[in-house]
Amino acid sequence: GAAEGSTCITKHMSVSGDIKSEDDVCVDGQLVGNLKTSASVRASDMILGDVAAAAAVFSGARVKGNLAFSEDLVIGEGSVIVGDIKCGNADIAGKVKGNCSIEGAARLASSALVAGDITAGSIATEQGAKIIGTIRSGDNKINVDAEFDFGGELA
Predict the structure, then answer these.
(1) pLDDT in tens, 76-98
(2) Terminal-residue alpha carbon distance, the chain
(3) Are 69 and 91 in contact (CB under 8 A)?
(4) How far apart are CA 154 and CA 118, in angstroms?
(5) What gap in Å lies between CA 21 and CA 2, rounded to an integer?
(6) What Å distances lie between residue 24 and 39, 74, 91, 107, CA to CA?
């Protein structure tokens, strides 16, 4: 059930149009439109549109749109996301088709499938996680030439 001060699209409800809120938003039905809240999002059905919030949990959700979260993102097993992701930290157990820009830690479960590039502060993958794309983690200010210069020159 929805907590007091939250907006909920219930299981058999379909909403067309953008939603802007300062409260938590749950999407257990279908949303065709963009969703923006300064709080968190929980979704278990379908969203066709961009989602921006502080944090989000997707459980068995299908989303086609770009995602932006200042804090944590959880993509549960059975969830399918088609769109680019920007977030603080990410736990991914579902499928993502799009590029992921993760400021902090990215954790990919064995069930994860990411078709796109991943940039993260740090990354951990369980055996079985699938990534089709490039991975870049750590400090982007690393001077690669300096790190690998050991003074030897080949003639």
Answers:
(1) 999 999 999 999 999 999 999 99
(2) 72
(3) no
(4) 35
(5) 15
(6) 5, 15, 20, 24
C-alpha–C-alpha distance, residues 63 and 67, integer Å: 9
Question: Which residue, among 3, 7, 5, 4, has the nearest Cα to 19 in the 3D structure?
Answer: 7
> What is the rounded CA–CA span in Å between residue 112 and residue 92?
6
SS3 145: helix
Closest C-alpha to 47, from 85, 77, 17: 17
User: Greatest CA separation found in the chain?
Assistant: 73
Q: How many residues does the chain have?
A: 155
Burial class of 140 by CB neighbour count within 10 A (0 to 12, 13 to 18, 19+) = exposed
Q: What is the pTM of this model?
A: 0.89
Q: Are 53 and 40 in contact (CB under 8 A)?
A: yes
DSSP classification of residue 143: -
